[in-house]
Design brief:
single chain, about 270 residues, alpha/beta, TIM Barrel, eight-stranded parallel sheet, 9 helices, 8 strands, globular
Length: about 270
């Protein structure tokens, strides 16, 4: 049984009418749990509605690419929902130094706002006794990872973080693990050209990572280039199991256990 630990089912690329079919295909691929993440205030309610399905849980947060459009009190508005039983974590939040800064913003000011929001998400997660989902991305180098890790260092004794869609070297993954955090591998880890992340996934100890789709983005082989969806996490699981010398059942078991613990999920469905 598999868990897709990171997807965006409220994305405009998924029609609400499609959700039953998407869930049916997920079940057929033995994907029994999905974490759908909000990235803006205006998609929190949609994600909460989706999480009325027993297979779906949700995290709530402001994506770093959207902080310029969010009000200054956005995290306070998110806080109103943390006691909802459908909410299992805070995020997607983080730092994105890949995309160009919005019009009217300098890189320095936009990054400063992202960092402020990340601090506020961490504080909310700690107070709510929930864990945090972090996005980092750079055009070159690893500045967003370094800055996010430094902020995590300030909070790691109060909450845990997952660095999702991890594509970095083992040395950086190990630094996350040293703080009590975890990493998550997505479709990129199935690309034969992605040598660094494949080496990281091979070395990462069982019990310290999850698997994800990040759908509708980054579909794994053999569906690369297509719209991603939760059922495709099985391809990532199978590829990583082969890479690590495990059976699919073994990898499914320990990644599901990590997801259950990290997101404090309610009992799994039949």
């Amino acid at each position: 049984m598999l868990t897709d630990s990171h997807c965006h089912l409220a994305s405009h690329r998924f029609s609400p009418d499609e959700i039953p079919e998407i869930l049916s295909r997920a079940r057929a691929s033995q994907v029994i749990q999905m974490i759908s993440l909000a990235t803006r205030l205006d998609d929190i309610d949609v994600n909460l509605t989706l999480a009325s399905h027993p297979e779906i849980h949700t995290c709530i947060g402001i994506h770093p690419c959207d902080v310029h459009q969010a009000p200054d009190d956005a995290v306070s508005q998110i806080a109103k929902h943390v006691t909802d039983p459908r909410v299992c974590g805070i995020g997607e939040t983080g730092l994105d130094y890949y995309h160009a800064s919005p019009e009217g913003w300098t890189d320095a000011d936009f990054r400063k706002r992202q960092q402020r929001f990340l601090h506020e998400h961490f504080e909310l997660a700690a107070q709510a006794k929930l864990n945090l989902v972090i996005h980092t991305r750079d055009l070159e180098g690893s500045a967003s990872f370094e800055d996010a890790l430094a902020i995590y260092q300030e909070y790691h004794q109060r909450t845990r973080a997952v660095f999702h869609c991890f594509i970095g070297p083992w040395e950086n993954a190990n630094r996350v693990l040293a703080l009590g955090g975890i990493v998550s591998f997505g479709g990129v880890a199935t690309f034969k050209s992605a040598h660094e992340v494949r080496a990281t996934a091979k070395q990462c100890p069982a019990g310290h990572f999850m698997i994800e789709t990040d759908s509708p983005y980054l579909a794994p082989e053999p569906n690369r280039g297509k719209r991603n969806e939760p059922s495709f996490v099985r391809h990532t699981a199978a590829a990583l199991a082969t890479l690590r010398g495990e059976s699919l059942e073994e990898l499914a078991l320990h990644t599901q256990e990590v997801a259950n613990q990290f997101f404090r999920l309610r009992p799994k469905i039949d």
